[in-house]
Amino acid sequence: MDWVMLGIVLALVFCVGFLFAPLGLGGGILFVPILHYVAGWAIGGELILTSLMLTAVVSWGSGLVHRKEGLIDFNVAKIALSGAIPGAILGAFIVSQLDDQLDFVFKVATMLVVGWANYKTWKKMRPQKSSKSEPDEINIQTIPVRIGAGFGGLASSSLAIGAGAIYIPVLHQYGGLRSRTAIGTSFGTMMFVVPMAIISHALFLQGQLPDLIWLFTLPIAVFVGATSGARLGMRLNDEVILKVFLGLLAIIFVRYAMDIGNRIISA
Fold first, then answer.
1. Smaller CB count within 10 Å for the chain: N or C?
2. Comparing C-alpha atoms, which of 177, 225, 191, 174 is closest to residue 71?
Protein backbone atom coordinates (compact mmCIF):
# COMPACT_ATOMS: atom_id res chain seq x y z
CA MET A 1 0.00 0.00 0.00
CA ASP A 2 1.37 3.40 -1.04
CA TRP A 3 0.35 5.50 1.94
CA VAL A 4 1.48 8.77 0.34
CA MET A 5 -0.74 8.07 -2.66
CA LEU A 6 -3.62 7.17 -0.37
CA GLY A 7 -3.20 10.46 1.48
CA ILE A 8 -3.17 12.45 -1.76
CA VAL A 9 -6.30 10.72 -3.07
CA LEU A 10 -8.11 11.18 0.26
CA ALA A 11 -7.31 14.91 0.25
CA LEU A 12 -8.52 15.25 -3.34
CA VAL A 13 -11.82 13.42 -2.83
CA PHE A 14 -12.44 15.46 0.34
CA CYS A 15 -12.03 18.65 -1.70
CA VAL A 16 -14.36 17.34 -4.40
CA GLY A 17 -17.04 16.52 -1.82
CA PHE A 18 -16.64 19.96 -0.24
CA LEU A 19 -16.77 21.92 -3.50
CA PHE A 20 -19.50 19.92 -5.22
CA ALA A 21 -21.94 19.86 -2.30
CA PRO A 22 -23.18 23.46 -2.69
CA LEU A 23 -23.36 23.08 -6.49
CA GLY A 24 -25.80 20.16 -6.54
CA LEU A 25 -23.30 17.83 -8.24
CA GLY A 26 -22.30 14.32 -7.21
CA GLY A 27 -18.59 14.67 -7.94
CA GLY A 28 -18.16 11.60 -10.13
CA ILE A 29 -16.96 13.74 -13.01
CA LEU A 30 -13.85 14.39 -10.87
CA PHE A 31 -13.75 11.14 -8.86
CA VAL A 32 -13.15 9.17 -12.06
CA PRO A 33 -10.06 11.12 -13.22
CA ILE A 34 -8.68 11.13 -9.66
CA LEU A 35 -8.91 7.36 -9.44
CA HIS A 36 -7.79 6.88 -13.05
CA TYR A 37 -4.88 9.33 -13.34
CA VAL A 38 -3.76 9.83 -9.74
CA ALA A 39 -4.42 6.39 -8.22
CA GLY A 40 -3.71 4.62 -11.52
CA TRP A 41 -6.92 2.56 -11.77
CA ALA A 42 -8.04 1.33 -15.18
CA ILE A 43 -11.44 2.35 -16.54
CA GLY A 44 -13.51 -0.69 -15.57
CA GLY A 45 -15.96 -2.17 -13.12
CA GLU A 46 -13.84 -1.44 -10.04
CA LEU A 47 -13.44 2.23 -10.88
CA ILE A 48 -17.07 2.70 -11.93
CA LEU A 49 -18.45 1.07 -8.79
CA THR A 50 -16.08 3.03 -6.53
CA SER A 51 -16.88 6.37 -8.19
CA LEU A 52 -20.60 5.67 -7.91
CA MET A 53 -20.15 4.70 -4.26
CA LEU A 54 -18.39 8.01 -3.55
CA THR A 55 -21.03 9.88 -5.54
CA ALA A 56 -23.71 8.20 -3.41
CA VAL A 57 -21.96 9.46 -0.28
CA VAL A 58 -21.94 13.03 -1.64
CA SER A 59 -25.59 12.85 -2.69
CA TRP A 60 -26.74 11.47 0.66
CA GLY A 61 -24.51 13.69 2.79
CA SER A 62 -25.53 16.83 0.92
CA GLY A 63 -29.08 15.65 0.25
CA LEU A 64 -29.85 15.25 3.94
CA VAL A 65 -28.60 18.77 4.63
CA HIS A 66 -30.71 20.22 1.79
CA ARG A 67 -33.72 18.22 3.00
CA LYS A 68 -33.31 19.65 6.48
CA GLU A 69 -33.27 23.14 4.94
CA GLY A 70 -36.50 22.35 3.05
CA LEU A 71 -34.80 22.65 -0.33
CA ILE A 72 -36.05 19.41 -1.93
CA ASP A 73 -39.30 19.41 -3.90
CA PHE A 74 -40.46 15.82 -3.46
CA ASN A 75 -43.25 16.05 -6.03
CA VAL A 76 -40.83 17.05 -8.77
CA ALA A 77 -38.26 14.53 -7.50
CA LYS A 78 -40.79 11.68 -7.87
CA ILE A 79 -41.43 12.66 -11.48
CA ALA A 80 -37.69 12.84 -12.15
CA LEU A 81 -37.11 9.43 -10.56
CA SER A 82 -39.69 7.79 -12.84
CA GLY A 83 -37.34 8.59 -15.73
CA ALA A 84 -33.95 8.52 -14.04
CA ILE A 85 -34.14 5.05 -12.49
CA PRO A 86 -34.90 3.22 -15.78
CA GLY A 87 -32.14 5.31 -17.37
CA ALA A 88 -29.67 4.17 -14.70
CA ILE A 89 -30.51 0.50 -15.27
CA LEU A 90 -30.11 0.93 -19.03
CA GLY A 91 -26.75 2.67 -18.54
CA ALA A 92 -25.38 -0.22 -16.49
CA PHE A 93 -26.48 -2.70 -19.15
CA ILE A 94 -24.79 -0.68 -21.92
CA VAL A 95 -21.51 -0.55 -19.97
CA SER A 96 -21.61 -4.31 -19.43
CA GLN A 97 -21.71 -4.82 -23.22
CA LEU A 98 -18.73 -2.61 -24.11
CA ASP A 99 -15.91 -4.92 -22.92
CA ASP A 100 -12.60 -3.78 -24.47
CA GLN A 101 -14.16 -0.62 -25.89
CA LEU A 102 -15.16 0.69 -22.44
CA ASP A 103 -12.15 2.99 -21.96
CA PHE A 104 -12.55 4.69 -25.35
CA VAL A 105 -16.34 5.02 -25.29
CA PHE A 106 -16.29 6.11 -21.64
CA LYS A 107 -13.88 8.99 -22.32
CA VAL A 108 -15.66 10.14 -25.48
CA ALA A 109 -19.04 10.16 -23.70
CA THR A 110 -17.54 11.90 -20.66
CA MET A 111 -16.10 14.61 -22.90
CA LEU A 112 -19.59 15.29 -24.22
CA VAL A 113 -20.96 15.61 -20.68
CA VAL A 114 -17.99 17.75 -19.61
CA GLY A 115 -18.59 20.01 -22.61
CA TRP A 116 -22.25 20.32 -21.62
CA ALA A 117 -21.30 21.05 -18.00
CA ASN A 118 -18.77 23.67 -19.14
CA TYR A 119 -21.42 25.39 -21.25
CA LYS A 120 -24.02 25.38 -18.47
CA THR A 121 -21.48 26.60 -15.90
CA TRP A 122 -20.30 29.40 -18.19
CA LYS A 123 -23.90 30.38 -18.88
CA LYS A 124 -24.69 30.40 -15.16
CA MET A 125 -21.74 32.72 -14.51
CA ARG A 126 -23.01 35.29 -17.01
CA PRO A 127 -24.92 38.21 -15.47
CA GLN A 128 -28.69 37.86 -15.85
CA LYS A 129 -30.49 40.72 -17.57
CA SER A 130 -33.71 40.12 -15.69
CA SER A 131 -35.21 38.02 -12.91
CA LYS A 132 -37.14 35.83 -15.37
CA SER A 133 -34.58 33.04 -14.90
CA GLU A 134 -36.09 32.38 -11.48
CA PRO A 135 -39.72 31.21 -11.89
CA ASP A 136 -42.27 32.85 -9.63
CA GLU A 137 -44.31 29.69 -9.31
CA ILE A 138 -43.89 26.02 -10.02
CA ASN A 139 -45.00 25.02 -13.52
CA ILE A 140 -44.09 21.36 -13.90
CA GLN A 141 -43.73 19.98 -17.44
CA THR A 142 -43.95 16.29 -16.59
CA ILE A 143 -42.79 14.68 -19.84
CA PRO A 144 -39.69 16.90 -20.36
CA VAL A 145 -38.71 16.34 -16.71
CA ARG A 146 -38.96 12.56 -17.13
CA ILE A 147 -37.05 12.55 -20.41
CA GLY A 148 -34.34 14.87 -19.13
CA ALA A 149 -34.00 12.91 -15.89
CA GLY A 150 -33.87 9.71 -17.96
CA PHE A 151 -30.81 11.02 -19.77
CA GLY A 152 -29.40 12.01 -16.38
CA GLY A 153 -29.87 8.50 -15.01
CA LEU A 154 -28.30 7.02 -18.14
CA ALA A 155 -25.28 9.32 -17.84
CA SER A 156 -25.02 8.71 -14.11
CA SER A 157 -24.85 4.94 -14.46
CA SER A 158 -22.74 4.74 -17.61
CA LEU A 159 -20.22 7.45 -16.66
CA ALA A 160 -20.14 6.86 -12.86
CA ILE A 161 -21.27 10.42 -12.09
CA GLY A 162 -24.10 12.06 -10.18
CA ALA A 163 -25.37 13.82 -13.33
CA GLY A 164 -26.28 16.99 -11.46
CA ALA A 165 -25.07 18.94 -14.50
CA ILE A 166 -28.04 17.40 -16.33
CA TYR A 167 -30.62 17.27 -13.53
CA ILE A 168 -30.26 20.87 -12.38
CA PRO A 169 -31.04 22.65 -15.68
CA VAL A 170 -33.86 20.17 -16.36
CA LEU A 171 -35.39 20.72 -12.92
CA HIS A 172 -34.90 24.47 -13.21
CA GLN A 173 -36.30 24.88 -16.71
CA TYR A 174 -39.00 22.20 -16.86
CA GLY A 175 -39.67 21.57 -13.18
CA GLY A 176 -40.23 25.26 -12.45
CA LEU A 177 -37.80 25.24 -9.50
CA ARG A 178 -35.65 28.08 -8.26
CA SER A 179 -31.89 27.52 -8.44
CA ARG A 180 -31.30 26.48 -4.83
CA THR A 181 -34.36 24.19 -4.80
CA ALA A 182 -33.26 22.69 -8.13
CA ILE A 183 -29.90 21.90 -6.53
CA GLY A 184 -31.55 20.30 -3.50
CA THR A 185 -33.97 18.32 -5.69
CA SER A 186 -31.03 17.20 -7.83
CA PHE A 187 -29.50 15.67 -4.71
CA GLY A 188 -32.87 14.21 -3.74
CA THR A 189 -32.96 12.48 -7.13
CA MET A 190 -29.35 11.28 -6.91
CA MET A 191 -29.98 9.81 -3.44
CA PHE A 192 -32.00 7.05 -5.10
CA VAL A 193 -30.66 6.92 -8.65
CA VAL A 194 -27.00 6.39 -7.74
CA PRO A 195 -27.67 3.42 -5.40
CA MET A 196 -29.82 1.90 -8.16
CA ALA A 197 -26.91 2.37 -10.57
CA ILE A 198 -24.60 0.63 -8.09
CA ILE A 199 -26.98 -2.33 -7.74
CA SER A 200 -27.38 -2.55 -11.53
CA HIS A 201 -23.61 -2.56 -12.08
CA ALA A 202 -23.16 -5.17 -9.38
CA LEU A 203 -25.56 -7.41 -11.30
CA PHE A 204 -24.23 -6.73 -14.82
CA LEU A 205 -20.51 -6.32 -14.13
CA GLN A 206 -18.08 -8.68 -12.46
CA GLY A 207 -15.74 -5.89 -11.34
CA GLN A 208 -13.64 -6.41 -8.22
CA LEU A 209 -14.00 -4.13 -5.24
CA PRO A 210 -10.91 -2.16 -4.19
CA ASP A 211 -8.78 -3.00 -1.14
CA LEU A 212 -10.56 -2.53 2.17
CA ILE A 213 -8.39 0.45 3.08
CA TRP A 214 -9.70 2.29 0.00
CA LEU A 215 -13.23 0.99 0.52
CA PHE A 216 -13.50 2.48 4.02
CA THR A 217 -11.31 5.60 3.93
CA LEU A 218 -12.52 7.11 0.64
CA PRO A 219 -16.22 7.30 1.62
CA ILE A 220 -15.34 8.81 5.02
CA ALA A 221 -13.23 11.55 3.40
CA VAL A 222 -15.97 12.30 0.88
CA PHE A 223 -18.73 12.30 3.52
CA VAL A 224 -16.86 14.77 5.73
CA GLY A 225 -16.18 16.98 2.72
CA ALA A 226 -19.75 16.82 1.43
CA THR A 227 -21.50 17.51 4.74
CA SER A 228 -19.19 20.38 5.63
CA GLY A 229 -19.41 21.73 2.08
CA ALA A 230 -23.22 21.58 2.10
CA ARG A 231 -23.28 23.67 5.29
CA LEU A 232 -20.36 26.05 4.75
CA GLY A 233 -20.45 26.11 0.96
CA MET A 234 -23.70 28.06 0.91
CA ARG A 235 -21.79 30.93 2.50
CA LEU A 236 -19.04 30.87 -0.11
CA ASN A 237 -19.06 32.99 -3.25
CA ASP A 238 -20.81 30.91 -5.92
CA GLU A 239 -18.83 32.60 -8.69
CA VAL A 240 -15.51 31.54 -7.16
CA ILE A 241 -16.67 27.93 -6.81
CA LEU A 242 -17.99 27.91 -10.37
CA LYS A 243 -14.71 29.27 -11.73
CA VAL A 244 -12.77 26.53 -9.95
CA PHE A 245 -15.23 23.95 -11.27
CA LEU A 246 -14.97 25.34 -14.81
CA GLY A 247 -11.17 25.20 -14.69
CA LEU A 248 -11.14 21.60 -13.48
CA LEU A 249 -13.59 20.54 -16.17
CA ALA A 250 -11.40 22.14 -18.82
CA ILE A 251 -8.37 20.19 -17.57
CA ILE A 252 -10.33 16.92 -17.60
CA PHE A 253 -11.62 17.62 -21.12
CA VAL A 254 -8.09 18.21 -22.44
CA ARG A 255 -6.68 15.14 -20.68
CA TYR A 256 -9.36 12.83 -22.04
CA ALA A 257 -8.92 14.35 -25.51
CA MET A 258 -5.18 13.58 -25.35
CA ASP A 259 -5.89 9.95 -24.42
CA ILE A 260 -8.40 9.56 -27.24
CA GLY A 261 -6.03 11.20 -29.73
CA ASN A 262 -3.16 8.91 -28.71
CA ARG A 263 -5.37 5.87 -29.07
CA ILE A 264 -6.52 6.90 -32.55
CA ILE A 265 -2.94 7.59 -33.66
CA SER A 266 -1.66 4.25 -32.33
CA ALA A 267 -4.56 2.30 -33.84
1. C
2. 177
